[in-house]
Write a structure and sequence with these properties.
- This protein folds into three domains: about 1-95 and about 155-225 and about 310-390, FAD/NAD(P)-binding domain; about 100-150, no CATH class; about 230-310, 2-Layer Sandwich (D-Amino Acid Oxidase, Chain A, domain 2), CATH 3.30.9.
- Helix content is about 30%, strand content about 25%.
- The protein is built from nine helices and 19 strands.
- The strands form four sheets. Strands 5-6-4-14-15-16-13-17 form an eight-stranded mixed β-sheet. Strands 8-2-1-12-19-18 form a six-stranded mixed β-sheet, covered by helices on one side.
- A hairpin with a 2-residue loop joins strand 18 and strand 19.
- Helix 4 crosses helix 9 (about 335-350).
- It is globular.
- It starts with 9 loop residues before the first strand and ends in a 40-residue tail after the last helix.
- The structure holds glycine (GLY).
- Glycine binds near residues 49 and 308.
- Glycine binds next to loops.
Length: about 400
């Protein structure tokens, strides 16, 4: 960062897919943008599988999030086309479909209930397949597979290629990408006017906080209820590759455009513990082998850890939380899928002061206390007392 204060229109904290997609779209809208990225090795996107699957990630009580995810998937091809054209590079988008399978009687019962949820309550385009039909579509599946839910619209993208393309597109539009760990926000007259990193200050008309799992560690006027949820994930090299996104109750398996297979992921409340453990690897392989027995012959290439940025209700936080400060974080398991939609929403907010209707339920306002007499100006969010997560 320069020692001489500058005044770009927007400073984006975080150079992952969310921060970069926002930066790129703001540049396209004519803003001047600086992206500040701490280059955290455990940023979620570095190990993310890149599944674009409202069906796999749908959960009970998350109807609004599924609606948003469905819209995000529908809009993904247009985003990919525009990004690939600007960055002159491919990002591995493939509409492969997903197959969620049951491996025993207990899982079969749960899968039946899930099918009702996806089709009737959430109105997703899904079909029920018998075990033999699952294996016809995906011969690598174990004969123990009893049934499956097929979601033909689900897709995948390569998160590392996505970030590389967003960096390139951001640069080509004149955006500045800087390595910097932001410690706190600069304030004046009750307004956020920039960011501080060590002794340096960068002034900005608007600050966008898109720092993933680290969003809650930056000293800001509003304490954000964002915590890291650890995920361990394996990469394997295989001769025969699965053609679809495969998922059981415990794990998912699918191919990368690089030819590797991703097996993920644990879900652990361990704070910022970045250890890849034998237990985590065992848990993934045990269930992975039950689903795809041929995996026992595959080569283990990488064990990685990433931190999913997560709010108490597992839904994103998108919106203005203080004058001059917009947040776009806590995308939990859906960061890659929701990056383009989040970017559109933030551009709308910065340019026109309002969010699209589908994004409005995800403002941080949902955590402001209902009993707060000064609700709009309260700087305290009513959330379980998590405290600031400790940065390692
Ligand atoms: N979206 C996959 C995961 O969070 O593990």
């Amino acid at each position: 960062m320069t020692r001489r204060p500058r005044r770009p229109d927007v400073a984006v904290i975080g150079g992952g897919p969310i921060g970069l997609a926002i930066a790129w779209r703001l540049l396209r809208a004519g803003c001047t943008v600086t992206v500040l990225d701490a280059e955290e090795p455990e940023a979620a996107w570095r190990v993310s599988a890149g599944m674009l699957s409202p069906a796999i990630e749908a959960d009970y009580g998350q109807e609004q999030l599924v609606l948003l995810a469905r819209e995000a998937l529908a809009g993904y091809p247009a985003f990919v086309a525009m990004l690939e054209a600007e960055a002159a590079t491919a990002i591995g988008f493939r509409r492969v479909g997903s197959l969620s399978v049951a491996l025993d009687r207990d899982q079969l019962e749960a899968l039946r209930r899930r099918f009702q949820l996806l089709r009737q309550a959430l109105r997703l385009d899904v079909a029920w397949l018998r075990g033999s039909e699952c294996r016809e579509r995906e011969p690598l599946l174990s004969p123990r597979v009893a049934a499956g839910i097929h979601a033909p619209a689900d897709a995948q993208v390569d998160p590392r290629a996505l970030v590389a393309a967003l960096r390139e597109a951001t640069r080509r539009r004149g955006g500045l990408l800087r390595r910097a760990r932001v410690d706190s926000l600069a304030m004046a007259g009750g307004r956020v006017i920039g960011v501080r990193s060590g002794a340096e200050t960068l002034l900005a008309g608007t600050v966008v906080l898109a720092a993933g799992a680290w969003a809650g560690t930056i000293a800001s006027p509003v304490e954000l209820p964002v915590r890291p949820v650890k995920g361990q994930i394996l990469r394997l090299r295989a001769e025969a590759l699965p053609s679809m996104l495969l998922q059981s109750e415990q794990v998912y398996v699918f191919r990368r455009s690089s030819g590797e297979v991703v097996l993920g992921a644990t879900v652990e409340e361990q704070g910022f513990d970045s250890t890849a453990t034998a237990g985590g690897t065992f848990q993934l392989l045990e269930e992975g082998l039950r689903m795809v027995p041929a995996m026992s012959e595959w080569t283990l290439a990488e064990a990685g850890v990433g931190f999913r940025p997560t709010a108490p209700d597992n839904a994103p936080l998108i919106g203005e939380i203080a004058p001059g400060l917009v947040v776009a974080c806590a995308h939990h398991r859906n960061g890659i899928l929701l990056a383009p939609t989040t970017a559109e929403a933030v551009v709308r907010l910065v340019e026109h002061g309002q969010l699209p209707a589908l994004v409005a339920p995800f403002t941080p306002d949902r955590y402001r206390s209902r009993h707060d007499p000064d609700r709009d100006r309260s700087q305290r969010l009513a959330v379980p007392a998590l405290g600031r997560p400790e940065r390692h």
